[in-house]
Specification:
Elements: H1 28-37, E1 42-47, H2 53-67, E2 74-76, H3 85-97, E3 103-108, H4 114-127, E4 131-135, H5 156-167, E5 172-177, E6 187-188, E7 204-208, E8 214-217, H6 219-234, E9 239-242, H7 248-260, E10 267-268, E11 270-271, H8 277-287, H9 293-303, H10 309-333, E12 338-342, H11 348-357, E13 372-373, E14 381-382, H12 395-401, H13 409-415
Parallel strand pairs: 1-2, 1-12, 2-3, 3-4, 4-5, 5-9, 9-10, 11-12
Antiparallel strand pairs: 6-8, 7-8, 13-14
């Protein structure tokens, strides 16, 4: 990775109840880099903790089924202020140790003092979860403005920096990227000198609002936004997962900007499928997403059908085709290696998208992942079950055929 940083290896060995070293999961960045090296596309799933006991049971079963599809990882969101922290960690434990898929746990700054962060990371080590998505987080429910907790963290950059300082390279840390700008920097354009036809001075990711006004990111705010993303990477973020988007031109221009300014880590596009026409506007409104006019026209048409089940199904089928075509363009461009599907705990729609993209229906049909598991103070061993496969080539065979990447300096330090 070209972004240089000081590597501080972890000094303690996570121990299980019987006193043995806990076998830690894979670092997702190793699997991403291996897929990129082999020029193989991949996918991943995101879920959120349900609010009811029955919802948790339903999701548990659904994740068991979806793990068989072969995601490189599955991740779980984190409630504001650790509101769902216990459940989030429990579900990540299930993903890691029952579903046999590497788990990525979201971790936010909202209402989180350092002790809560320390407890969350200790919990991850205890169950072998090695992957964290570091986020600032949304304001707590019922509050409009985000405020930092006394003795806590002010932003995702603080969180990335803290994790690296406390845990060295033990965790794979990722961060969020916003191709159209974070909602907080997307504002109504009030500059009287701005020309909407020529977009001069140039605002980033402009969209027209229902009231006829325009919204975008000012040149000054956009420069700050991009520099902040670079700082998160330089602080130790291994890869970037993006906010949802539907405008490919803006996305490709953003990626090029990132590369031109020296951000070289993998950028993985966050893909939000179309589930219900009625809820689409609320979601994109909250995120201030730029939505192409042709998409808005289709959504509006199906919203007029209300609760008509046949039309709802028709809308989903249209959405699957749209997202599949969009994803094909993304993957064919060579700009990104994968699609990260925001499932909203739904199985059917993501499956249809993967079918349309030609991904195997069963994990055992997928190309074999490099599946290296490390436990602190242990030797490097091949743990086939980490990918859910029944058998894998031996480490010697993997070295011989070139599918096993060399041990990194960070891994050598962990194993010393």
């Amino acid at each position: 990775k070209s972004q240089a940083r000081t590597i501080t290896p972890s000094h303690t060995s996570p121990m299980s109840a019987n006193g043995t070293a806990v076998v830690q999961g894979n670092k997702i960045i190793d699997k991403i880099n291996d897929r990129i090296k082999r020029k193989e596309h991949f996918f991943s799933f995101e879920y959120f903790p349900p609010k009811t006991e029955q919802g948790v049971k339903n999701l548990d079963k659904r994740m068991t089924d979806m793990a068989r599809r072969g995601p490189v990882w599955m991740d779980m969101t984190w409630g504001a202020g650790g509101r769902t922290s216990d459940l989030t960690l429990t579900l990540c434990d299930k993903i890691q140790n029952e579903k046999k898929v590497d788990a990525l746990m979201h971790l936010t700054c909202t209402n989180m003092e350092k002790k809560k962060i320390d407890d969350a990371l200790a919990g991850c080590k205890k169950v072998g979860v090695r992957n964290i998505l570091a986020l600032r987080g949304d304001p707590p429910q019922g509050e409009e403005a985000w405020t930092a907790t006394e003795g806590g963290f002010t932003c995702a950059l603080d969180l990335v920096t803290y994790i690296r300082k406390q845990h060295g390279e033990h965790f794979c840390v990722s961060c969020a990227g916003y191709p159209e700008g974070h909602p907080n920097v997307r504002k109504v354009i009030t500059d009287k000198n701005w020309d909407p036809e020529k977009n001069e001075p140039k605002y980033w990711a402009v969209r027209k609002l229902p009231d006829g006004k325009y919204e975008g990111v000012s040149p000054e705010d956009w420069k700050t936004e991009q520099n902040y993303l670079k700082k998160k990477v330089e602080a130790g973020s291994d890869f970037i997962v993006t906010q949802l988007f539907y405008d490919l031109d803006i996305f490709f221009a953003w990626v090029k900007q990132c590369r031109d300014m020296g951000i070289t880590v993998p950028i993985l596009p966050g893909i939000m499928p179309f589930f219900k026409a009625a809820s689409f506007g609320r979601m994109t409104g909250f995120c201030k997403t730029v939505v192409p006019q042709d998409v808005l026209d289709v959504v509006k048409k199906y919203q007029e059908f209300g609760a008509d089940k046949a039309k709802a199904k028709e809308f989903q089928e249209w959405g699957v085709k749209y997202i599949a075509e969009m994803s094909k363009k993304l993957l064919a461009s060579g700009t990104v290696p994968s699609v990260h599907l925001y499932t909203l705990n739904n199985q059917a729609v993501p499956y249809k998208i993967l079918d349309a993209l030609g991904f195997p229906k069963e994990k055992t049909q997928a190309p074999v992942d490099r599946t290296i598991s490390l436990s602190v103070n242990s030797k490097r061993t091949d743990k086939g079950w980490r990918s859910g496969l029944q058998s894998l080539p031996s480490t010697e065979e993997m070295k011989a055929n070139g599918s096993l990447a060399p041990v990194t300096e960070a891994e050598k330090k962990l194993e010393a």
